[in-house]
Design goal:
- By secondary structure, the protein is mainly alpha-helical.
- The strands form 3 sheets. A 5-stranded mixed β-sheet has the order 6-5-7-9-8. It has a two-stranded antiparallel ribbon with strand order 1-2. It has a two-stranded antiparallel sheet with strand order 3-4.
- Strand 1 and strand 2 form a beta hairpin.
Length: 721
Amino acid sequence: MTASITDSGRSTVTESDDRLSRPRRHVWRSPADQPRWARPALLGIAALAAFLYAWNITGSGYASYYSVAARSMSVSWKAFLFTALDPSATITLDKIGGFLWPQALSARVFGFHAWALTLPQCVEGVVSVLVMYRTVRRWQGPAAGLLAAGSLALTPVAVSMFGHAMLDGMAVMCLTLAVDQYQKAVITARLRPLLASGLWIGLGFQAKMMEAWIIVPALLVGYLVAAPVTLRRRTGHVLAAGAVMLAVSLSWVALMTLTPQDARPYADGSTSNSAFSMVFGYNGFNRFDPGLISGADDGTSGGPGSGPPRGGRSDQREESAGQSSRQGQAPPSSAAASGSHGPNSAVQGPSSRGGDAKRLAEAPATGSSGRLKLLRDASYTTQIGWLYPLALFGLIAGLVRHRKGSRTDQARAGYLMWGVWLATTTAVLSSFSFAHNAYLATLAPAIAALSAAGTVELWRAHRTARTGRRLWALPAVIVAEAAWTVHLASGYTDFAPWLVPVVCTAALIAVVALGRAARSIRIGRLRVGSAGIAVTGLLAGCVAMFAAPTTWSLSVLDERYAGSAFEANAGPPVAIDAADGPDSTSLTAGQRKLLAYVEKHNSDAEFTLSADSWSTAAPYIYAKGLPVLPLGGYSGTTSSVTLAEYQHLVAEGRLRFALLSGPRPATGTPRPKSPPALGKDASETLKINSWVYADCTAVAPATYGVTASDDDPMLTLYECA
């Protein structure tokens, strides 16, 4: 066979050989246009990724708020379609829950277990690694592709994220698939792959909403600059792909908007039952400018402490820390602790429970609110930032080397696209305070691609240069990377005391070996014997540059350093030590007795019972997927059910029992004749609780065989019919 070498050094087959005619029966054999070692190496990287992501799968835990919805979606197709919190689909999550679709299907097939919810994320991670290889190989060759795949697989935040049931895993996979299809389009100028790229971005929007659009500027600039067709056709292609992207992105919002309100769940995160306000206000622009889009829930109705601050968010760190006890039950509220009774002592959603843990969760880490937090905050840099210098030098080196290329030069176009991705994502993440590390994962593909391409470009420049800066660029980058690694790792010598000496020694060996090989260069080619020295220098340099992220990633093999379902964090530091979700999704003995009593006396009511918060409803949804009616949404202030609607449900016999968080009525202590007065701005949930307290009959725990105990939650059951 014969082959041509592209400007980027990639081998492209131009004539077929005997391997082309053989059926592809062995997945471990490389295709004919790739070296024989490429496919086995890729499969090895994918196997390592799968091993790391799935290592803690049985103990991966539950992100309590999301896992309640996953349970509901696994037993109800209506809840699945609308990504509802409860099986009866009365209220949605406070975001589009498309990331839960794979989890719900997995739970439907395998049963509701923590590992069943995490399994799709493990698969998404491996797919991302494989697609990363294909994308970078097509751009810079198989060596760079393998290095990029390995870098993504061993990015600390990605290893933790793909090993737990989180929002961001599906989003990252969709973005890597979108870039893969975009690259096909920009090389061939074909419309179909560009439309597919828009489709994948739209699916990513279902997983993480506007965060999926963060790569649109990069793809737009890359295609308009480099696609080998006229500007008119490039513009038409971009507009068509944009239309597909918007159609898929807004499909769920359109479904919610066009479906009559009485036939769909209430849109949590909004004050007007508007999916648009929830997506683009509560979860979007209002993060940067609170109040910019009207109709978004600011979490302030119902009085102080009723929800997150204006412009605040129910990010996963906040949702789990302080929202869930180890059994998915609410601890006593402050009112309960003081012995007060009545509806105002009931827990009004997660915002009023677990106060100390929630305040800790909401408090940003040191430097996390500054514009330079991605460089200065160790909780971020250790998860995503080890390769910052290499990625930056790789980007600069690539653009400089190909600066004189034609408009359609694909090597330069790749650097342009990845560079815009990196710059845009960095700018967005630096502009607001985000509550959990998984947001950083959107940086991982760009850093991995630029680091891999930069390493290959610098090696080619060193190998072929005669004298000057190109000859010493690679040793200089290795030294810079080693210095940055020492700077970051020096604060964690107790975690890996050997890491800094290894990095320094490897960097020294690399510089000496590369320098000695450089002195042996003659007319741009290495002398006999000097190639081995240069390769030794390259390998030592790779150890110096990649040892730290690899160490942090491999630490997930120790469960203490694996992160959790609400915080993607591999290795130290562990940002928050807070409850993740229920250790068990089975009901306690007291809850089973309460449920047995309710089911015995519930006649044919539509709802098993109502609960004054999602966390109060959670145990009964977890255990049996029961049609429990949760009130108040995430913040506890959402008017998903008004007092009038609640009274109508009771009057029609569709609801008979209510479960309020707070202290049980003391034996022998009469209940006040009327509940405490409510303010004019009281939430509908507080109004409902007040009505239940005043007009319904409290069921003494002894009636269903339960005695007060420290092991049982402080809950009161009321019969309203």
